[in-house]
Design a protein that fits this description.
The protein is α/β, with parallel strands linked by helices. The chain has helices spanning about 25, 35-45, 55-70, 80-95, 155-165, 190-200, 220-225, 250-255, 270-285, 285-310, 335-340, 345-355, 375-395, and strands at about 1-5, 10, 15-20, 75-80, 100-105, 150, 170-175, 205-210, 230-235, 245-250, 315-320, 320-325, 360, 365-370. The relative contact order is 0.17.
């Protein structure tokens, strides 16, 4: 149980000070309690909390996002990634007159019943890789909830082309870099091919940039990989931990939200949250990305080196401010099924050994680096990683 956050650290109720690589599940791109964000929120609270109408701070937030995101001809704000994923799928169905949404194994697009399928399925339940079986992500879901969803293997362009050729898919939704499970880049040509296939078959392509947005660069994965989808969704790092989300995309599609497609929400474009968003975006400068990227790469490579020196087989893959550690793999994973072969017990032992030494990492292998993880903290982390790796290597041998 935590009492407060300070920069790169969390302090629990017993006073333990932990270097934090959960990063609010990726949201804390600037670290905990950055002064510019806190000050902007305080100022906005003095001006007004909720207007039930548009505000200048919302307009400024939209300007900033539109200037950065290639797909953002129009923008609407929401409160969570789960919520704006629903808006994107509704819009795709309305625009095409079709029902089916295609998603991919290992990709997560929120906790709602109609899309929480095959996010981390057991392989003995997931069927063959070329025809995955839709697997519920939670107790309480019925088979009816998934009738509008088809699941494919990611990074397999031929499989996507075959499915779209049937002509009944409203939308394809994917993480443009697979970061809910792992930190896996698209294969060369995959995103370009997916966009071209969607164009040929009249399907809307949606990039879920809830994790990748503002971590893989100011313009997200779509700018990094130079592929502009029809629609995009964002949350997490967009406002450094405040409950902000956005759906952005083509004007002709987004304008349907004022012509028959409902997207509502009392707290959409909440002025206090918009103030946090503006302040966060103003801090995400080229200098921020240069500095954070350099430290993130040094940390990523240092973790890989420490594990190798301890004799632990692992793949440390990903990006500058978000990477993933998978024990037991001989090669970098290309999709969920590759990643599912990892030694989860071994990594769990590693995460526990780190926690006992004051470093908190996600048990699923993801590490999120913030602007607050300075060189001294990276050095401290790597020294702890070296100790923990040796301890775990001995445990695994035993």
């Amino acid at each position: 149980m935590f009492e407060r956050g300070e920069g790169a650290h969390l302090i629990d109720i017993d006073g333990n000070r932990l270097i934090d690589y959960y990063g609010g599940m990726g949201a804390m791109v600037l670290g905990h309690n950055p002064a510019p964000v806190c000050e902007a929120v305080t100022r906005q609270m003095q001006s007004g909390i909720l207007f039930a109408g548009q505000s200048m701070v919302e307009y400024r937030a939209a300007e900033l996002i539109q200037a950065r995101i290639p797909s953002a001809q129009r923008i609407r704000f929401g409160s969570s990634g789960s919520e704006v994923a629903q808006a994107a799928m509704r819009l795709a169905r309305a625009a095409t007159g079709r029902r089916t949404i295609v998603k991919f194994e290992g990709h997560y697009h929120g906790w709602f019943d109609n899309i929480l399928w095959s996010t981390a399925p057991a392989l003995n339940a997931a069927g063959p890789s070329d025809e995955p079986v839709r697997v519920a992500g939670s107790l309480g879901q019925s088979a009816d909830d998934g009738r509008g969803v088809d699941v494919l293997q990611w990074n397999d362009l031929a499989a996507l082309e075959r499915r779209l050729a049937r002509g009944d898919v409203a939308g394809v939704i994917m993480e443009p870099a697979m970061c809910n499970q792992g930190a896996i880049a698209p294969l060369p040509g995959y995103l370009e091919g997916a966009l071209a296939a969607c164009r040929r078959h009249g399907t809307i392509l949606v990039f879920d940039e809830v994790i990748t947005g503002f971590r893989l660069g100011a313009g997200g994965a779509q700018q990094r990989f130079a592929v502009t989808p029809d629609l995009s969704i964002f949350a997490k790092a967009i406002a450094n931990g405040f409950p902000a989300a956005a759906i952005a995309g083509r004007a002709d599609l987004m304008d349907m939200f004022v012509d028959g497609v409902l997207h509502g929400g009392t707290f959409n474009s909440h002025p206090v949250v918009m103030a946090a968003l503006v302040a966060t975006q103003q801090e995400l400068t080229p200098a921020h990305y240069d500095a954070t990227s350099a430290r993130g790469l040094r940390l990523r490579d240092g973790v890989a080196g420490a594990l190798a020196a301890a004799g632990i087989k692992a793949q440390v893959t990903g990006f500058e401010s978000m990477f993933h550690v998978a024990f037991g793999l001989d090669a970098p994973a290309r999709n969920y099924r590759d990643l599912a072969q990892a030694n989860k017990r071994g990594y769990a032992l590693f995460a526990l050994a780190l926690l006992r030494r004051g470093v908190r990492v996600l048990e699923r292998g993801a590490w999120f680096v913030s602007a607050a993880h300075d060189d001294a903290i990276v050095d401290q982390t790597l020294a702890i990683v070296t100790e923990a790796a040796l301890e775990v290597a001995a445990q695994l041998e035993g």
